């Protein structure tokens, strides 16, 4: 009964409507949030690859969400992790009225599109587009290592000074920001990029974000608390220990829930 706050929920490079994010969507629903889990690539009618994805898709999602019965359009939030956090920060800096953003394993910059061509042969596309044009982006540098893609991101990030247009202007976001990262990350340097976001906010005089860092967690640091051993094993492959990731998810969810309640309210059952 009554209007509820609403959240745009964005998964990562897996695309579609991932099972892990669906679990988080159901938790948010139980907390009293209308939640739109948006498939922005690798889904029917969408690009199969994460390249030049229109930011307008996310704005349409927010517009649609605001128009639904029972939604309080004055209490909007965005939650995303990994590439969904990259997109979420971009959208939060552009879409007026977003009051809270929770971003796990975030990026401080716009990256190349996630394609084999980009990883192996250089910069062919951006991850995102706006007005039909690719956003300025950092190129991957070097080659994937034995543990995965981390080297191409670490080396690419060293070039940010030569391409400052790729930096996401976090200071334009007028809402409250919460960032979550794991220091044992193996996929991309999310804690160093978290530090870059905080440094830019400080430099520009914007309100400081809330930051949750977990020493023994990796790319599975944020999401719904684990309920089965298979998920724990899967996420441990992307950094951290099974116990570390599980503890981080349990702790961060409690703090994310409190953050959302403080910024958006909630009418949970």
Question: Your description of this structure?
Answer:
The protein has eight helices and nine strands. It is α/β, with parallel strands linked by helices. Helix 7 packs across helix 8. The model has no long low-confidence stretch (mean pLDDT 94).
Radius of gyration: 17 Å
Order of strands across the main sheet = 2-1-4-5-8-9
Report the principal-axis shape.
globular
Helix proportion range: 25-40%
Number of strands: 9
> Major β-sheet, in short?
6 strands, parallel
- Mean of residue pLDDT values: 94
How far apart lie the N and C ends?
11 Å
Number of helices: 8
Labels describing this entry:
single chain; alpha/beta; six-stranded parallel β-sheet; three-stranded mixed β-sheet; 35% helix; 18% strand
């Amino acid at each position: 009964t009554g209007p509820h706050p609403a959240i745009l929920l964005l998964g990562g490079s897996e695309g579609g409507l991932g099972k892990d994010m669906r679990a988080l969507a159901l938790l948010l629903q139980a907390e009293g949030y209308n939640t739109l889990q948006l498939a922005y690539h690798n889904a029917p009618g969408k690009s199969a690859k994460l390249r030049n994805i229109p930011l307008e898709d996310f704005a349409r999602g927010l517009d649609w969400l605001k128009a639904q019965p029972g939604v309080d359009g004055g209490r909007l939030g965005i939650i995303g992790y990994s590439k969904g956090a990259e997109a979420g920060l971009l959208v939060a800096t552009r879409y007026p009225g977003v009051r809270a953003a929770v971003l796990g394993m975030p990026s401080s910059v716009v990256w190349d599109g996630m394609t084999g061509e980009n990883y192996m042969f250089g910069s062919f596309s951006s991850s995102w587009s706006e007005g039909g044009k690719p956003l300025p982006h950092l190129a991957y540098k070097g080659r994937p290592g034995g543990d995965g893609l981390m080297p191409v991101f670490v080396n690419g990030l060293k070039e940010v000074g030569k391409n400052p247009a790729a930096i996401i202007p976090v200071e334009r976001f007028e809402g409250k920001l919460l960032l979550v990262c794991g220091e044992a990350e193996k996929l991309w340097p999310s804690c160093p990029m978290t530090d870059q976001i905080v440094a830019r906010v400080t430099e520009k005089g914007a309100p400081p974000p809330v930051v949750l860092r977990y020493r023994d967690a990796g790319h599975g640091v944020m999401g719904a608390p684990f309920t089965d051993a298979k998920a724990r094993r899967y996420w441990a492959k992307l950094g951290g220990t099974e116990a570390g990731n599980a503890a981080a998810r349990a702790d961060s969810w409690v703090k994310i829930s409190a953050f959302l309640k403080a910024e958006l309210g909630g009418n949970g059952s």
